[in-house]
């Protein structure tokens, strides 16, 4: 698998684990054209995300489940805050220009479509982010993470399960996030907004599998 963060055929959305700039209020839009994410480099509480080892895989499908697409996307930068061996916060930024289809790479009609206004409008919104706001422990490794997910300049709170391991100065995290893409204005072939699509209707759900490796 390529070292890429994945999002879903948009249904696609991403994406993403991934995502805009993370300071807007819930539901607001911000037409950010460049990254404004600032990291705490040198702060011993913060572990920098290894963008070569971290991967988000996206999965999208038709409503009937017969047509499924998967792919990847790059994390451009990010960090996790660790205190006493526990995850306390963090932020991840995704470069939407790196959207990739698993089977056909980056230069194909599907990927080009995902980048246009039907989906992520990447020229206008080149970055997406997720900022962790709360971590609830289930046990030593299993957590419920809450964060602000920003895509296309729109921010909503999301909560999802994750497994976190902190060992020998390295943080490893695996998470699964499922979103309703229409909340981030990704409406293409959604039954909520279009009638008579029949078997062309796309599911509103996008599934992200997120693998993160971070270190000081």
TrEMBL record:
Q: Which Gene3D superfamilies match?
A: Lipid/polyisoprenoid-binding, YceI-like
Q: What is this protein called?
A: YceI family protein
User: What is the originating organism of this protein?
Assistant: Arcicella lustrica
Tell me the lineage of the source organism.
Bacteria, Pseudomonadati, Bacteroidota, Cytophagia, Cytophagales
**What residues does the Lipid/polyisoprenoid-binding YceI-like domain cover?**
46-215
């Amino acid at each position: 698998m390529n070292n890429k963060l994945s999002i879903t055929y948009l249904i696609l959305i991403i994406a993403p684990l991934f995502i805009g700039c993370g300071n807007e209020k819930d539901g607001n839009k911000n037409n950010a054209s460049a990254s404004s994410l600032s990291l705490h480099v040198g702060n011993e509480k913060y572990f920098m995300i290894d963008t070569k080892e971290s991967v988000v895989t996206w999965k999208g499908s038709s409503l009937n489940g017969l047509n499924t697409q998967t792919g990847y996307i790059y994390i451009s930068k990010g960090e996790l805050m660790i205190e006493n061996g526990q995850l306390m916060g963090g932020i991840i930024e995704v470069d939407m220009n790196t959207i990739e289809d698993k089977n056909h790479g980056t230069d194909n009609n599907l990927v080009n479509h995902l980048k246009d206004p039907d989906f992520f409008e990447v020229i206008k919104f080149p970055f997406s982010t997720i900022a962790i706001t709360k971590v609830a422990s289930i046990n030593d490794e299993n957590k419920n993470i809450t964060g602000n997910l920003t895509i296309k300049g729109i921010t909503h709170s999301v909560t999802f399960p994750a497994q976190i391991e902190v060992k020998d100065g390295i943080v490893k995290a695996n998470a699964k996030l499922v979103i309703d893409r229409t909340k981030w204005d990704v409406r293409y072939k959604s039954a909520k907004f279009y009638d008579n699509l029949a078997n062309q209707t796309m599911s509103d759900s996008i599934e992200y599998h997120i693998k993160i490796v971070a270190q000081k």
